[in-house]
Amino acid sequence: MALPGQPTLPPTLHTSSPSSSSSSSFSSPPSFSPLPSLSPLNGSSKHSSKQNNVLGFAAGHEKWPSELRIPVYSTSEVIEKMRGKLPNKQVDEHPYRAMYSSLIGGIILDPTLMVIPIDDHMVHRGHGVFDTALLINGCLYDMDSHLDRFLKSASAAKISPPYPRETIKGILLFLAVASKLKTGSIRYWLSSGPGDFLVSPPRNSTPTFYSVAIAKEFNRILEGVKVITTTIPTKPPKFATMKTVNYLPNVLSKMEAEEKGAYSSIWVDDQGYVAEGPNCNIAFVSKERELLLPRPDKILFGCTSKRLLILANKLIGNGILKSVRTRDISVEEAKGSAEMMFVSSLIPIMPVVDWDGKPIGDGNIGEVTRAISDLFWEDIISGTQMLKTEVTY
Ligand SMILES: Cc1ncc(COP(=O)(O)O)c(C=O)c1O
């Protein structure tokens, strides 16, 4: 045991028979037996009889828990264990129906094997970008707009995709086919790749592309939600405008909202202008019936918001709206709006009726929000073929 003032040394892992367990459990450096010679502690343990290798600490010291037993699994045991973590369902009932990995250059159907290496820089350095595609009634909606943003984010993050754009598009379509899904979402990632745990991209590795097809139903959102202003700082524009895997600020701001009983949160920048939500943009309807969206250059301006700017023009024609524009919107002006909504591809419109405990407008879903939601559903379900890429199953 370490004496006061002495550094605490790591324990020697106890890997042999109980007879040697009376030896001191603290020494330096820690010593390991080669794995193949490891034997169960205390004879047969609580673990399955198939399991031969168990690491544990010797009993009888204060600092390290002698009940800690760490099995060392074989490849087949790992797969068995991982499979046990999945919901007890058939593979075709699991929400993750198919994954493409450029590492193997093909599609994986078993959710247990839908994994990426721990040394992939997207995992340990956040050096990766991503995007999504909405699969609805056998068509991918607005796929080109998402691919444009994906490649823009990749270039801003200095990651060169391993395939040209048309190949990526082809992979996403084949993934939809392999998943057999008609409705769901497809998520895809580009990473600087596996190879080491350094900061800059691994030298002898090519960037990796991964994609997953997920079963999901989409329903129109007909209820308004509550939001709060988050205390988590906004991302600087350089990072806010690219869709990278660095979502920690987004996660914390969403959690903050949930902790306070709200659905989600709103970022306000250091100049007092509203920015966006953690995974969606925001739009407002002023009392003068203008549709207002925050300026696109400081936020992740979504494909849905771009489409909204076009679709909403139809409402100017029939007198529901007076104008549609993007500009700086102060938090006071935003809170005084007649209507407010979240805008994002997998929603696509969600009414917001309460902000920081005060109603937006009269606290009900407004006429313009309903009309915009109608326009989107029509566009997604039966709208222009230009925005739909049909999957040939
Ligand atoms: C931070 C953030 N802003 C905005 C959006 C909306 O983008 P889109 O409409 O392309 O889904 C998202 C979507 O994931 C997002 O994560």
TrEMBL record:
GO biological process, one term: carboxylic acid biosynthetic process
Low complexity composition-biased segments: 11-41
Highest rank taxon of the organism: Eukaryota
Cofactors (names): pyridoxal 5'-phosphate
UniProt key word Cytoplasm: no
Stretches the record annotates as Disordered: 1-50
Gene Ontology MF terms: catalytic activity
UniProt keyword terms in alphabetical order: Pyridoxal phosphate
SUPFAM superfamilies referenced in this protein's UniProt entry, alphabetically: D-aminoacid aminotransferase-like PLP-dependent enzymes (SSF56752)
Pfam families listed in its UniProt record: Aminotran_4 (PF01063)
Similarity field: Belongs to the class-IV pyridoxal-phosphate-dependent aminotransferase family.
PANTHER family linked: AMINO-ACID AMINOTRANSFERASE (PTHR42743), OS01G0238500 PROTEIN (PTHR42743:SF8)
Name of the featured protein: Uncharacterized protein
Species name: Dendrobium chrysotoxum (Orchid)
Taxonomic classification: Eukaryota, Viridiplantae, Streptophyta, Embryophyta, Tracheophyta
